[in-house]
Design a protein that fits this description.
This protein is α/β, with parallel strands linked by helices and 271 residues long. It is 44% helix and 20% strand. The longest helix is centred in the middle third of the chain and has 22 residues.
Length: 271
């Protein structure tokens, strides 16, 4: 078996991954794709990359597993704290102000590309603390990685993964055992973990807040714009979009307005 994918093999996998997920592999991250695919050949005891290609092309389930294996799932609790400061001090007050006018009492949030669940659980803890009655919240947490979603659904994190959680939150929302920390069932019940490929419409509508951080960097411009347009369709009037601090919609033809708060920069749908 060759040490590296041939150019033709790389192009075949690059294209199918892009077509299926919008994730772009280029010369700079080709080695990641190469190593992940070589792992798959060893795991399945296959001789050639072409054999594996035929498997994923003939099985939707294997295609999902392959997409899962080539994605990077880096996350942590309270990652990029200024975003959560903006959520508490600006976004939620404005969302509630608009909800008073409509009589709606449910704040709807989507954590897109949620990885192993640290982001949606962070949001859930914050909302538990700050939402006044009669308001409640619903969080949908989605990812293309089934393995990551399973971790989120189980809500169990080893000690090495809970760094960044304030001690009072840890005491209130987690139960410690000898292997790590389990999210309490009440908090878990506020989040629905769901497999979703951002290439497709989620079916969600009238969302108040969308978090999609450090996901767009894996897409090319066309896939980024298509994803952002789908977020627009999923979001309600006077809603807010958080993307990664190294990501930007500048130069993209989009209906979102740039919003600079005292805490962080984000985008709003203000119609």
């Amino acid at each position: 078996m060759a040490d590296l994918l041939t150019d033709a093999e790389f192009e075949k996998f690059r294209k199918v991954i892009y077509d299926e997920s919008g994730i772009t592999f280029s010369a700079t991250n080709r080695s990641i794709l190469d190593s992940r695919l070589k792992e798959k050949l060893r795991e399945k005891q296959l001789e050639t990359i072409e054999q594996y290609y035929q498997i994923i092309m003939s099985s939707k389930e294997e295609m999902k597993i392959m997409l899962d294996s080539v994605t990077t799932n880096l996350t942590r609790f309270f990652r990029n704290q200024p975003h959560f400061d903006a959520l508490v001090n600006y976004v939620i007050p404005h969302v509630l102000e608009n909800k008073k006018k409509t009589g709606d009492t449910t704040v709807k949030i989507w954590s897109a590309g949620c990885s192993t669940g640290e982001e949606p659980y962070t949001i859930a803890m914050i909302l538990k603390e700050i939402l006044p009655p009669p308001y409640k919240f619903q969080i949908t947490a989605s990812d293309i990685s089934l393995k990551s979603l399973m971790v989120g659904q189980q809500g169990f994190y080893p000690e090495s993964r809970i760094a960044g959680i304030p001690q009072n939150y840890l005491d209130k929302y987690f139960t410690k055992n000898d292997k790590g920390y389990q999210v309490n069932s009440e908090l878990m019940s506020t989040i629905k973990f769901d497999y979703h490929n951002l290439r497709n419409d989620s079916g969600a509508r009238n969302l108040d807040v969308v978090f999609c951080r450090n996901v767009l960097i894996y897409f090319d411009e066309a896939a980024q714009k298509a994803t952002i347009d789908r977020f627009w369709d999923a979001m309600g009037a006077h809603s807010y979009l958080f993307i990664g601090h190294s990501e930007s919609l500048f130069g993209m033809e989009t209906k979102f307005e740039f919003l600079k708060t005292d805490w962080a920069c984000l985008y709003q749908k203000n119609v």
